[in-house]
UniProtKB/TrEMBL annotation:
<dbReference type="InterPro" id="IPR029787">
    <property type="entry name" value="Nucleotide_cyclase"/>
</dbReference>
<protein>
    <submittedName>
        <fullName>Adenylate cyclase</fullName>
    </submittedName>
</protein>
<dbReference type="GO" id="GO:0006171">
    <property type="term" value="P:cAMP biosynthetic process"/>
</dbReference>
<dbReference type="Pfam" id="PF00211">
    <property type="entry name" value="Guanylate_cyc"/>
</dbReference>
<dbReference type="GO" id="GO:0004016">
    <property type="term" value="F:adenylate cyclase activity"/>
</dbReference>
<feature type="domain" description="Guanylate cyclase">
    <location>
        <begin position="209"/>
        <end position="343"/>
    </location>
</feature>
<dbReference type="InterPro" id="IPR050697">
    <property type="entry name" value="Adenylyl/Guanylyl_Cyclase_3/4"/>
</dbReference>
<dbReference type="InterPro" id="IPR001054">
    <property type="entry name" value="A/G_cyclase"/>
</dbReference>
<dbReference type="GO" id="GO:0035556">
    <property type="term" value="P:intracellular signal transduction"/>
</dbReference>
Amino acid sequence: MNASELQKLLDWLIDGGRSATSPKSFMADTCERMVAAGLPLWRVGVFVRTLHPEIYGRSFIWKPGAEVQIGTVDYKVLDSPDFHNSPIIIVFQQGQEVRARADDPQSARFPIVEELRAEGVTDYIALPLYFTDGTIHASSWTTKQSGGFTDEQLAALRGLNTPLSRVIEIINWRRMAANLLDTYVGNRAGERILGGQIRRGHTETMNAAIWLSDLRGFTSLSDRVPAETVVDILNNYFDCQVAAIKKHGGEVLKYMGDGLLAVFPIDEYVGDEQQVCSHALEAAHESRASVANLNYPIGDAVERFRFGLALHVGRILYGNIGGGNRLDFTCIGPAVNLAARLEKIASQLGRTVVASEGFAGICREGWSDLGEFPVAGFSRTARVYGLVDEKSAA
């Protein structure tokens, strides 16, 4: 063991590993510094549970001379036999280290250790990573060294584990904050909030295609079925739209009961409004088909659903709005208000998808002129367009 290199590594970790610019580079730098200090590492894994509605945890795997592999697992892993027969679950649940030497018959109970032994691994140890909030995460260390890790090498790994845990916790919290913001306010808004745009009045303007949709008959539905069923229906209904919106470059800003507000940002310097509006229209077609295929068993009947969607394009004010220390990152402006009014007109006409004159003027194909309509709160009437392949259900 090289005591000098080991101390340099320890100092680097205590300083936060600041020369590493990403989680991947931090993992690679840490392992390479360990090898330079005399630790004969082969495969190193870090396993961190996260706070995410779909992802249970993330893994970082390092091997000498290879790029760090980052993976994610969803909550289905909790039902996986491989996970329940892994040393990692013991670390997670009991906070105990697990040692599995290749020459120990007891190690055969861990499939992962058997797989590694086939690669020539002679020793495996999983260590708990204790975070300051009390949660337990895990790391695993393997070697191909004849006879496995020495006592001195194991002591070095255990000694480095605490400062390593602190840095991994910081990295994890940063990512968790980004994930939570992405989940609750959207990617674009999340980036701005993390970038420091957190004060009331911090706003900017941008051009965007605006999407505002609403589930038809939601009030009646809420009165007929249990609240838990309503929530499940809403989740399925929003799934029909969100996947299409994200696929085509849009961002969901807000859920308002059964309503959904999304934007498709337009880069005014590139001049891509025609492409952006085309993408929004493609998402509308896909969402319309998905909602039409959505059915939900309620008692002896099967409920089918309809929704209304208004598409508009215009300039919006985007940023922090609210009172005191309770803010909302959202968009407002006449363009958003008009989209909301158009959605109500869609309901009156029994239409699924309608568009403003501005939107239909950019995406010219596939629209029929439905006429001019008075718009509440606006001094002028608005010309409304509907999809030619759709008849009024009124």
